[in-house]
Amino acid sequence: MNIDQEPSRSFTMTSNTAATQTPSQEQNAPSANTNKGPVICVFCGASPGTSPAHLAAARSLAQAFHDHKISLVYGGGTGGLMGELARTLTKLSGPSAVHGIIPEALLDLERQSRGGSIDEKLYGRTTVVSDMHTRKNQMAKEVIEGGPGSGFVALSGGYGTLEELMEVITWNQLGIHGKGVVAFNVEGYYDGLIQWVRTAVSAGFISPGNAGILVEALDAEEVVKELREYRVSEDRYKLDWSQK
Prior knowledge:
8-stranded mixed beta sheet; globular
């Protein structure tokens, strides 16, 4: 729903963040791979938050993924919301449903704080990469190559979560991908961000025509529904990203 019609539901934003590489683009009218199941990338905090609602939301999202046969790709951490989401879905759907992608430096931090390696039986498959840009590129690539209903979701988190969210929104606006982007707004966590978007639209820094790039969801089932029914904005930039 357009931001002008229902302020708390749909909105969009832009960002100046950009990785050194971008995933294979879907051009201006992307089509999902109907032979594959949906793949959803979840950005979220490595901390649990102060309210139990955040961990509960992570568990409910894992349950929804299991119910709808959705695969998860995420940042590969074992703590906080990241770990809760991965553990819960691995327990429900098995290790093959979860793929964590983590840079070597963060894996070293995991070893120091948790002890030992990341157990596939508990957290699903883990791929170790060299840097943050490669991590984000690979996560996006899996989503882009996923089946109908694939997309990106932001649970509650800190600086990293917000940066990742803004980047995939920007990539959508620029036509690099056409997958849905959803903010799972737990206990009003993203209310301030939503208000910022409204302000940016009214101030002329975000096009009203792109108001549906980012969608708000208030529960896990709504997250799945919004991604399944996502429609690409007609106001996105029509750029050719295949040029070298």
